[in-house]
Design goal:
- The chain is of the alpha/beta class and 399 residues long.
- It contains 13 helices and 13 strands.
- The model has no long low-confidence stretch (mean pLDDT 96).
């Protein structure tokens, strides 16, 4: 089998950005594979499209049933591959995932079977990013009563775990990263008003969900080491399931200081950490109790499985970071079904919106009652819908 061409597809924009996918085509016309470049959000979209095109050109003519060889080829022969980074690894991730999709289809089995078979029959999921509400509208919640309502809406869908960024939305209803409010400063030292607001929002969710609800706190790396400690200590009495990105992961020692200051709160990070090399020091120093590699950015299915296996040596649990389209979700489920240190699956509030769901061919890849049953279709079990292809903004072909 040979790779004949690679399509790079810019999907129609939605609330989460513009999903970027690759489709690798082979000389067996009915066998092709999909992967996703995990740069649909933030400001790296065109870099994501470009790197997928650059790497797509390299692999034409190669054997798609050799994902390890292709991963090493991109890593070692492109010059920048061994430099790593977000964009390089996102391109590698999409191609690698598409190769595993092809391999599953070629052998007529789901990818999880090729990875070693299931250790998890059902996949527990949580409702993520409730500061934006939980439903058909994308909101920016400020009032603790609205945080309680979002919690109730998630519970009504069967979830028993949620995630929220209690400081992500300013008191005037703007996304903090884009706000210029000098009174909503997230680095240096948090004001008492901000701490009180964050506590009341989270407390409202705790009261709405009861003691059996697992609440994950997310801060999107906005705080620094000091403010991360401040917020964690204020919220600790509310029994936090784990604490995600309390500071950016560029300095392992800073994250370690937060861990020392909050010894009874599990720390999580990973969406900005790439490959085994990136996770190594965090695991060796026992900084993270929950790792969150993003399969569409950290190196694809091949590398994600290796990262998870390495984490298992250090008793670190795994919650794959998922902030993308149906391809990202489907591929992540294949890995989660296999790894013994799987903890929980992320369902972003943007992923439940109709325009995002419409990108996928199969609607059964969604949680029911807060749990997934992983499909048994060959490959990753999902591909772009005809609607997504028809409405795509651009499709580039490497051949």
């Amino acid at each position: 089998m040979k790779i004949t061409s690679v399509n790079v597809i810019e999907c129609k924009p939605n609330v989460m950005g513009k999903v970027i996918c690759v489709r690798i085509n082979t000389d067996h016309k009915d066998i092709y594979g999909y992967g996703e470049v995990g740069l649909s959000y933030g400001k790296a979209h065109y870099a994501g499209v470009g790197i997928a095109r650059d790497f797509g050109e390299i692999i034409v003519g190669m054997d798609p049933l050799k994902p390890e060889l292709i991963w090493e080829t991109i890593f070692r022969t492109t010059f920048w591959g061994m430099g790593g980074g977000t964009v390089i690894n996102a391109g590698m991730s999409a191609i690698d995932t598409a190769l595993w999709d092809i391999m599953g289809k070629a052998y007529g089995v789901p990818v999880y079977q090729l990875l070693g078979g299931k250790t998890n029959e059902r996949i527990r999921a949580y409702a993520s990013q409730l500061q934006f509400g939980w439903g058909p509208e994308h909101l920016f919640l400020t009032d603790p009563k609205d945080y309680a309502k979002a919690t109730e809406d998630a519970l009504a869908d069967g979830y028993d775990a949620i995630k929220v960024d209690p400081m992500g939305v300013t008191d005037e209803g703007k996304w903090a990263r884009e706000a210029t409010n000098p009174n909503w400063k997230m680095r240096g030292k948090l004001s008492e008003k901000m701490l009180d607001t964050c506590y009341k929002r989270t407390e409202a969710m705790r009261k709405a969900g009861g003691e059996n609800l697992d609440i994950i706190i997310e801060t999107h790396s906005y705080p620094d080491m000091n403010t991360g400690i401040q917020l964690g200590q204020r919220l600790e009495p509310l029994n936090i399931y784990y604490y995600e990105e309390p500071c950016n992961p560029l300095n392992v020692e800073n994250m370690l200081e937060i861990h020392k200051a909050l010894p009874h709160v599990a720390l999580a990070s990973g969406e900005r950490i790439y490959t085994r090399w990136g996770f190594r020091e965090f695991l060796e120093k026992h900084v993270l109790q929950v790792i969150q590699p993003d399969l569409t950015i950290c190196g694809g299915i091949s590398e994600t499985k290796k990262i998870c296996d390495m984490a298992n040596i250090y008793d670190a649990a795994v919650q794959l970071h998922i902030c993308g389209g149906p391809i990202a979700t489907a591929a992540s489920l294949q890995v989660e079904a296999v790894i013994p240190n799987f903890l929980i699956h992320e369902v972003h509030e943007g992923a439940i919106k109709k325009d995002m769901r419409d990108l996928g061919m199969y609607e059964d890849i969604k949680p029911v009652g807060g749990y997934y049953d992983v499909p048994d279709r060959p490959g990753i079990g999902q591909e772009l819908s005809q609607k997504a292809l028809d409405e795509a903004e651009n499709v580039y072909t490497c051949q």
